[in-house]
Amino acid sequence: MSGRTRSPAVAGSFYPGTQPTLAAAADALLDAVEASGASRAVVAPHAGYVYSGPIAASAYAALRGRREELARVAILGPAHFVPLRGAAVPAADAWETPLGALVIDAGLRDAALAAGAVADDGPHEGEHAVEVQLPFLQRLCDVPPAVLPVAVGETTVDEAADLVGALWEEADAVVVSTDLSHYLPEPAAREADRRTAEAIVGRRAEEIGPYDACGSFALRGLLAHAARIGAAVRLLDLRTSADTAGGPERVVGYGAFAVG
After folding, report:
1. Domains in the chain: boundaries
2. Could you name the CATH architecture of 5-259?
3. N or C terminus: which one in the chain shows less Cβ crowding within 10 Å?
4. What is the pLDDT of residues 199-218, one digit of tens each?
5. The whole model's pTM is what?
C-alpha cells in the first residue's frame, strides 16, 4: 500500500504492466467479443489475461449495453492467500492499475459493512482476483466507475446472499470473480466444469463447492440472491486454459455468466 491508495500487485505478470500495452490488450479482448446484452451482474474468471482474458471479455460484453450508467461497481472475489471468515472490504480510498486509480465507493463500503463485512486491507494485499477485473472496467466504461473490492472468505450461502443483496441494491453492477476447476486433466476438467455450469445456470448454489470454483463463496451468494429475486442466469462462455494458452495435462476451467 502507498498512503491510502493500493498499488497494483500483479501488473506485469497477470496483465501488461504499462498503460499503453494494457489499454491495447484490454481493448483487443473486449473488441473481439460481440455485445450480449445489458446485464445486472456477471461472473468472470481471474487468471492471467493470456489464459482467461477472452472468457472474461465475454462477461464484460454482457455489461456493454449499460456501460454509460456503470458509475458504481461491486467486485467480489476470493482471498487466495489469507484465511478469511466472512468478507473484507478495503480501508484504502483508491486502487490503482497502470490505467489509473479507481476510487473506492464509500456508499458501497458502508452497505457491505452493514451486511457484516469488515474493513481490512490485509486480505487484498497481493491478491489478484479483483485486481485483474479493474482494467476491463476502465476500458469498458467511458468514465471509470467507483468500485468496491470485496474479498469473500468462508460464509454460509445465506450470509453471502445477504451481502450480495445489499450491494445489488446500491451498485450499478455486481461482478463475481472466480475460476472453475483447477489442475485436472482436460477431459475431467471439461466434465467437472459442465456440471458446475449447469448448477450455476440453475441457480443451485448448494451444489457448488470449493473445488468446483475458487470463488465459490461469493458465487454461491450471487446465485442464491438471483434465486431470491427471480433473476435468470445464462452461460456466455465455458473454456479451459487448454483452449487459450496451456497444455492439456493440468488445466484450469473458466466460465463467464450473466445475471439479470
Report:
1. 5-259
2. 3-Layer(aba) Sandwich (3.40)
3. N
4. 999 999 999 999 999 999 99
5. 0.97
